[in-house]
Amino acid sequence: MIVCEIIFAVSLALILYTWIGYPALALLLSRVLPRPVRKSDITPAVSVIITAHNEERDIAAKLDNTLALDYPADKLEVIVASDCSTDRTDEIVRGYAARGVILSRQCEHFGKTVAQNAARRRASGEILVFSDATTLYAPDALRKIVRSFADPEVGCVAGQLVYVDGKETATGQGCRSYWGYEKFIKRCESLMGSLIGVSGCLYAVRRSNYARLEQDMIDDFVIASEIHLQGLRTVYEPEAIAIEDTNQRGRDEFRMRVRVIEQTISALHRYREVLNPLRHGMYAWSMWSHKVLRYGIVLLLLAMLISSAALSGQSWFYAAAFSGQAALYFAAFAGWIAERMRVRVGVLSLPYYFALASLAALVALLKFLRGEAHVVWEPMRDAGRRMTGTVSRESGAPS
Questions:
Q1: For the chain, how long is the longest CA-to-CA vector?
Q2: Which pTM does this prediction carry?
């Protein structure tokens, strides 16, 4: 039984470190050894690149929102990178040509990164801002996000994504809680030196530092490593606000997370050089703690469950540990049942989303180990849902 005890102890220690220890250490270091960003109210030429694949439902609202942003019109360029849309997306975008909107169409469905790379070649702005068709920006989002480029050490800036869940679904509430935790870590990592990833719906890059990414790479994760390898920082700007609706169905969220985690694991393998702490210091530590352990934690959870079950007859401690885990997964199952019955689940949304995200990580890891590459981008959309959030100029909060 000594082997089971060691497995349980190591698994528990790594789980606690990943979810509690690393955020606590990151907070401490961000307070003790902060690296603030030098900001200024600059207005460089900006190209907003909106990636879209069959977004006829939302693209007009997105373009209206973008063209209404509080930014000098003569310094704002809007490009829609259509990834071989087969609905009315391109037709709607062409209707905005008189207002200066440029359509960059991919004739084959190669994926988001390829579409962005093509649009980047047509862009003229000093700063490239990348966005999704289902994301709305606060009026001052561009002014806020470009301020940090006054610091020559900054190559990329991530805005703050605010999720909206109007129907208070289990998936939506769980996503909002998880994302609140992620944003806390982003603030700490930014102050420590650099983010290791950004939100794909709102991030900005110096055009001179934008690297052409491989088509099977997930741009919002890889871009931070590309910037780091150029000796620059990726920082967080919480005052640059974007809002987006959460997925309301668990199956959509599960599929999205499997796709994203699978591509992120592939990117970690491709960019494994940044995992060397002797060469990349704090950045490597963040990568190991925030990504590698986070995605591997599902294996630790399984190991802890099995080892505590084997040891439950040996002492009350292991029996209690096993019972606690069983209760957690039962609560997750109850949350899943409640969502399927369209019943508000309240606090059950947390264990439900935790189990959903963990299972998605397991499936993504298995797909990666089998060599199944996910290249083509397929946005997850609820056919009966439109963008519902609006953003106020005063607070930047969803209303």
A1: 75
A2: 0.90
State the Cα–Cα distance between residues 250 and 60, nearest whole angstrom: 27
What mean pLDDT do residues 54-69 have? 96
Local confidence band at 386 (pLDDT 50, 70, 90 cut-offs) = low
Angstrom distances, CA of residue 121 to CA of 85, 108, 145: 20, 17, 22
Residue 86: partners with Cβ closer than 8 Å, 6 or more residues away:
54
Provide the terminal-to-terminal Cα distance of the chain, rounded to the nearest Å: 56
Question: What is the DSSP secondary structure assignment for residue 290, as one 8-state letter?
Answer: I
**Does the pLDDT of residue 399 top 60, yes or no?**
no
| pLDDT band of 321, cuts 50, 70, 90 | very high
* Separation CA 334–CA 326 (nearest Å): 12
Asked if 146 and 42 touch (Cβ cutoff 8 Å), the reply is yes
pLDDT for the residue 347: 82
Distance CA 71, CA 240 (A): 13
CA-angle at 191, arms to 185 and 193, nearest 5°: 105
Give the ranges where 230-372 is alpha helix by DSSP (H): 250-270, 277-287, 293-311, 316-340, 349-369
Whole-angstrom distance, CA of residue 274 vs CA of residue 291: 12
**Residue count of the chain:** 399
